[in-house]
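Supplementary Text 2. Reproducibility record for the structural model of the 589-residue chain.

All settings were left at their defaults, and a single model was retained for analysis rather than an ensemble. We include the record here because the model underlies the residue-level annotations in Supplementary Table 4.
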Amino acid sequence: MLLIRYLSNAQPECNNMPNEEKISRLKKQLAESRKPRQQVTLLNDLAMELHPSDPAACIKLAAEALELARKIQFKIGIARSHFSTGMAHFKQARYLDAFAAFQRANDAYRQAGDRWGESNALNHLGLICSKTGNSLRALDYFTDSLRIKEETEDEYGKSNVLISIAGIHHEAGKTEEAKRMIGEALAIAQHIRAEALVGKVLYELGNIHCTEIDFNGARSAYTEALNYFEKQSDKSGIAQCRLKLGRISLETGDVNSAHSILHSAMDYALQVGDKSTEANIDVELAKIEWMQGHRAEAIVHLERARGFAEANQERPLLIKILQELSEAHEAAGEFEVSLANLKKAVHLSAEVNLSETTARLHDMEMNRKFELLERENRLMEIENQLALAEVRRRISSDLHDDIGAALSGFSIYSTAIRNNIMQGNLDEAMDSIDNIGEESRELLERLSDIVWAINPKNDRFDQLVSRLQNYASRICSGKNIDLNFAADTSLAEVLLPLETRSNLFLILKEAINNAAKYSCATHLKVSLNSNEHSINACVEDDGRGFNPNTASGGNGLRNMKQRAALIRASYDLQSTPEQGTRIVLEIPL
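Retained model, structure tokens:
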């Protein structure tokens, strides 16, 4: 499996550098860059930094990145450009445009093999479905996204998706389940020191407190969230927190404070074009105007909010607006208009109730999905623990065999040395001492190989190739053997499991060692390549060969065959007397 990593994929929120400083640095790097791929990456990085505060600039930069990425056929660049565009539309509550952009991003990420990007696109598709009242479809997107986040060990992304799923549970009235997920998301966000995530978690916690009519708890959560959003210069987040704080002030009777806070929230929402937050602020301002006897002004606010809700199909918000418009027109004696709004509200409520009924019918299926996901996670943990225990057992066995055999040999040599010295056979004693030195060096090299193979820093295939080539060059030069070593560059980023990497390295090293020491070869060829399903390795010499059917083979040949079986690799040894030896391995990916 090829693992593609790009530095630009790092979450910007995890970096403690101030937003303004990051933007300035990216602009400078972009101005100096002359490489098209780097330019695409920098344009998208800059777009993502600007999307919370300047969505219009984000869209412009993403379009420029997309044009260049298509020209040079840069798949990841294309995907990120669509994603940046989706983020800008989402911040402006242009949900249809955002949904289309995230779908294009999801397809592009999948084609590029970028699981990280695919999971982020799925999460935002779920957020849009949630906003437009399709909770069941949203849950499907969130569940798929969460599975990828856990498979790729993306803690930041996992926390983000847990916040989204908590929102679904909150809307469904499952408060305790929502709180549990919020707690898990907060713990992850604090552990990885992601301030923007902490802000989102606290905002969702404030929503839960509001549902429980715990205004003190809600005010505290929203205020803390506001502090985090202000640090990140997230104007949309600031507007949403101020909206909630203004609503709480209105609910608790502090009308003047509510009026001031809501107007401040509107200023921030207007700056980033966050139409959804604008509409909700208009609804709250309409209440204040109504309380102060300004009916015409209240209707203006409600009609403006209605325009947004209808255009973006935010049905719960639209029902609320229609009901309040009906009451306002009724109070003004405009009964026909009042009745028309009321009928629309009733009709829309019936549609929503039907959807909710359908959702309840699917509630068991939703719960089953969560249970299956949790069960899969538990099984994966158990399998990983069992696999790790088996790897440890085999490493212990290898160490025991190597060290035990060496110590046994040292004991025999030491006895021989003592006897030869007592009998005056100093030349034979020196031969035994030389043998101890040689076996000690071989043992140290074998232990070094085992330690190297289990070190996670050596996960990449190019590191295995480098160590193997160095060994082959060293041993062949000492035997005057002409070495031809070739490895596909496409293998460089392949990540192999510890056991596969360890056994593959030891098999190939044993094959090279046997050819150099025993074959009397003048040429040795080592090749490594891959296809869609496997890695193929071949060690071939032009030495004296042997008959595999009659030769004892010794421990070396037997160990290679056993190691190949452990990693489910096909092992083929071909040798003919005086015609050389060829060992071929095929390791499934």
